[in-house]
Design goal:
Elements lengths: L11 H20 L8 H11 L6 H14 L6 H22 L3 E2 L2 E2 L1 H4 L2 H20 L6 H27 L5 H26 L4 H28 L11 H4 L5 H9 L2 H12 L8 H10 L2 H19 L6 H15 L4
Helix pairs in contact: 1-15, 2-6, 3-4, 3-8, 3-15, 4-6, 4-7, 4-8, 6-7, 7-8, 8-9, 9-14, 14-15
Amino acid sequence: MTDFIMTLPITQELVEKKYHLYHSRINDALGACFDRESPVTLYAPARYILEGKGKRIRPFLTLLASEAVCGSSENALNVALAVEILHNFTLIHDDIMDQAELRHGRSTVHKQWNINAAILSGDMMIAYAYELALLAKSNRHSELIHILNDANITICEGQALDMELEEKKDASINDYLDMIAKKTGRLISAALEAGGVAGNATDDQLSKLILFGDKIGRAFQIQDDYLDIMANNGKSGKIVGGDVINGKKTYLLLRSLELTSGTEHDLLHSVIINKGISADRIPEVKAIYEQCGVLAETAALINSTTEEALSAIDDLPHAEGKEYLQGFANVLIQRDF
């Protein structure tokens, strides 16, 4: 997709090996959560959402952030679990609002049970996440709770902005970037910030981890937009051009509207006005994206934003943890799924 590859002492193979190891560690620990059997309609949905094919990117970043500032993730596991449970709560509620029927090839929680059970289970998961954070071996529990609260509020702001964006006929790039920073980016930066606190990071170290998370979150979401139109069928599990078919306002669409005029601009504007376009016209849209230069520009933006992220944590104290963080960011940005 992009040609940015940072040369690191930590190879991609080592990053992926550690990721799979920690993925199992996180999943095993999540499997011990919500072990109460009653009420069934409260705890079973929470277990169900955690049994899905989640990539566990956020808790992995939490563990690596702790390692980057103190050399160990021993005290960060409960914090990582709290972040992942908070993330899954947002997925349950997002699926309700989106009226989604499937997530990772399985019925969504509100379809498997019902909307009331999904809402209630999601609400319980927020409190459970806070309890896990309070179990962390740390004397900075108030900071951890503040981070989770701030992330939760900011995600809600992002979801509200996303709903407003859907109805906006004159949405700007800045509207979009503000929305993704809140809806997607903040939980990524919060995962890193919380991991830093668990590792007893200084304020300066936390600022660098947050900046890293903000930049990676932005690059990751813009890359999602890019891959929607560029990925081959089957790679992402989605229809190529699905965002355009559904009339979703993405970075590529909004930026192309700024760069085009005449019939090309009118076609792109019709995607917004009509809230979508037929699948057989996706090649036309892609051709416009290519001709106006937005594809090359977006790839360059993903690269430059990733470089800024990697540079932000260059002087964190523990080299191995820092290099794994940088290596994982590099793996994420090279994905084609």
